[in-house]
Amino acid sequence: MSNLVKLLCVGFAAFSTSAVFAQFEENSFFDESGDVSVEVASNMPTSGPKENLEPIELVNPRADDIFWQKVVYRTIDLREKMNYPLYYPEEDKIKAYEYLDTREIFTKEHELPFSEIINKFDIYATKKADSLTNDSIIVVEESDVPNLFVLKYYVKEVWYFDKITSTFNARIIAFCPIMVKDGELGVQKYPLFWVPFETLRPFLAQQEILITDKNNGARPSLDDIFMKRRFSSYIYKESNIYNRNVLEYNTSSEEVRKEQQKVKTLLLNFENDLWEY
After folding, report:
1. What is the pLDDT of residues 256-269, one digit of tens each?
2. Which of 107, 117, 192, 207 is most open to solvent, judged by the fewest CB atoms within 10 Å of its CB?
3. In 10 A of CB 238, how many CB atoms?
4. What is the chain's Cα-based Rg?
């Protein structure tokens, strides 16, 4: 008998005699086989069920208290490493509003019906009768949802200073998913629609994600990610009297980068100047 087999036999015998003394509580981190308990690991304090969680309520400042504000538009590219948690894993009721090149209007007149989204972007769908109401409903199979092609998002946000609380804040206003596909003219971008951030937050607060391979217990919600601004992005537009994005008045990539940096510097300098002595 080899030494390894002898060692395993001795170990098994020792385990057999001591197993009766081992206590496995219901909430133990390791199960009886010595592996990490799946049930416990998925319900750690940092990674618990999100079904009953609500987004953190934000303070709505009075308009009279805001004496400076700047609207900024960003692009989140899901192919950047910092944004991987927003894309992976690749899994799949909210009102959406049409994407316009010049402005964002979140009114009933600009609501985008689901059927129009299906037709506009050639998403395969079928119709069937609802089992309760017998109304005709549109059904899109999970495999037909083009989520793999949504590689970017436009983000509209506002930076403002509240004189009552003496705080300089940034608040996300809306998201616009961008579908990126190869076409006859090469790679094309298709902005789909705008969705107000506040209507998304109750759902984002219930969706946890893995943000690092170093700690599987660190699973913040998607709402946490955006509220704490733990994402990478770049500026493509700021509010201006001509309502132009940076590509419309800059002719080279270097000029675009300088303009983006100028907007970032504007925001940074405003906050720093508030506290100069």
Report:
1. 999 999 999 998 88
2. 107
3. 19
4. 26
